[in-house]
Amino acid sequence: MADAPKIIIDSDWKQQAQAEKEKLAAKEQAQQAQRQESAAGGHAADDPNRPIDFHDLVRSFASQALMYLGAFPDETGRAVVAPEMAKAYIDMLGVLQEKTKGNLTKEEESSLAGVLTELRLNFVEISKAVAKAIQEGKIKPGAGVGGPGMAGPGLGGPGPGGAGPSLRMP
Question: I want to staple 134 with a disulfide (CB 3.0 to 4.6 A). Which of 16, 151, 156, 162 is the partner?
C-alpha cells in the first residue's frame, strides 16, 4: 500500500490565512455599516458619487407612487391625486419584488416588502376617499393622466379603455 503524502503546514501560512480572513471580515463589516447608514438615510446616501443601489430604485418608484397619492405638491403647490398612476408604480414595485425573489439580501427583501405594504395601504385609503368625495359631489374628476385601461375598479373612473380620475387638491 502506498504511503499517503504528508501535508506540512507552517505557521507563516496559518498566520497569513488568518490575517486574510480578518481583513475580509473587516471589509464586510464596513460594507454592512455603509448599507445600514444608507438605508437609514445617513450621510452615505447623500454622497452623489456613490453607486446607485437597489434601495435607490425602490425609493424612486415609491416616491412616484406617493406623489400620485397626493403626498407631494406639484409646481403650483397643490397636491396631485391620480390613483391610477400611483397604482402603476405600486404594481411595478410588485413586479420587482416577484422577479427578484431569492436574489435580494434580507435587508432588501424586508425594505421592499415594507414599502409595498405601506404604499398599498395608502392607495386603498386614498382611493376610498376619492371615490367617496366623487360620490358626494365634493370633487369632480379631471382629465386622467394615465393611459388607457390604467384605472382599476373602485377608483371612481371609467373602466378599461378610459383614464381614471386625476384630481388637483388645494
Answer: 156
44: three-class secondary structure by DSSP: helix
This prediction has a pTM of 0.58
**Domain contains 2:** no
pLDDT digits (tens, 9 = 90+) for 26-71: 777 777 777 666 655 544 556 788 899 999 999 999 999 999 999 9
CA 72 to CA 95: how far, in whole Å?
Answer: 24
Q: Give domain status of residue 4, yes or no.
A: no
Sequence letter at residue 156: G
Task: Choose among 102, 110, 167: nearest CA to 134.
Answer: 167
Grid cell 381614471 — which residue? 164
| The length of the chain, given as a count of residues | 170
What is the number of structural domains in the chain? Answer: 2
